[in-house]
# Entry
Amino acid sequence: MVAEHGVGGGNGRGESPRSILQSDSGLDLASDFWMHRHFRAMAALYNSLLNEANLLPGDHVLDLGCGSGTHFDWIAALVGDDGQITGVDSDPDNLAQARERIADKPYRDRVMLQEGSLTEPLPFADGTFDFVWCAGSLQYVPTPVETIREMMRVVRPGGRVAVQDVEMTSMLLGPMPDELLIALKGSLPRGYTSGDEHHDYVDWLIGHKLRSYFVAAGLREIRGVLRTRVYTPPFTEDERGFLDVAVPYLSTGSPGIQDLSYRQVLELQRLVDENSPDYLLDQPDFIFVEGRSLAVGIR
Ligand SMILES: C[S@@+](CC[C@H](N)C(=O)[O-])C[C@H]1O[C@@H](n2cnc3c(N)ncnc32)[C@H](O)[C@@H]1O
# Structure
């Protein structure tokens, strides 16, 4: 049922729809609630992108912006018993969830968790790691090249840096008139959004720029992929759980919506109104496409 899962329904704890999508530090789409739904729906794609990054047995991996440790199981399996993971995130709540997640895992003693920021010097000596993995987090950083240089500093010479992030240039949502879809795409956040200090920067179009950022930072042998995830009915439970939250957010709650005309805003509100005959998620020709990009380079 939409009402149970929907963003409009809150979380049953009386919190506002937006707050359940925000991390404790106030970033949109960085809460554990959101991460779990998005991650479950995207698991196959995320796993394929991590596999493209070519982690090696024995690697000491820095998972930068690790969130609630969504990638830890996969990374631990790839690096094996001789590998290690250091997870860094700025959000203490997400780190606490990560700690809980690994509490009964066989690899738990090979994971270290630490609070830290992608926008400040990392608390590690030069060349500490074999590999830096950064998924879904660089989008929040206004100075991505500086952050990538910092990633390079903490990997050893010959070590690798991999960033996986959102690419919404390829976003589709429908059925809706072309003009409305183009306007919605044009409104996607890609920079400073509001005056709100907590969620004032996000770039949903970062994916196609990762290669340029890697070049500017001085990484070598850069390669990358761009993949799309297409959602059409019938939905799996995981897909529905994600779409119930994502589609209303994208259509009525994302930071760029304020730039649309009043008529466009009303039209989008109607398309995500469960009582409307045009409710998007009930349409047999519903489609949602989101893109995800990966870049890998060598120091
Ligand atoms: C969308 S989640 C992605 C988490 C995880 N890497 C994944 O792929 O599922 C983004 C994470 O980046 C973290 N984050 C955002 N800005 C950050 C910053 N400046 N420094 C450190 N972590 C940051 C958030 O707290 C959140 O846990």
